[in-house]
Specification:
single chain, 62 residues, mainly alpha, 76% helix, membrane
Length: 62
């Protein structure tokens, strides 16, 4: 029952992690592949940007 007490600050943290977490991971993977294969890195950068834009739209609509 401790989870029912307190504010809703944990919910905002969860929403922000859902919004930016996967995009940051994809961007990091793109950064790691940057030296080995630039085309793969570019694909990961594009996926990160798209995920961030789509995630922002979904999270803003809640």
């Amino acid at each position: 029952m401790i989870f029912l007490e307190g504010g809703m600050s944990g919910l905002w943290v969860l929403v922000l992690l859902m919004l930016a977490g996967p995009a940051l991971v994809l961007g990091l993977i793109g950064f790691l592949f940057r030296r080995k294969n630039k085309k793969v890195a570019t694909v990961f950068y594009i996926l990160a940007i798209l995920y961030f834009i789509i995630g922002w739209g979904v999270c803003s609509g809640m």
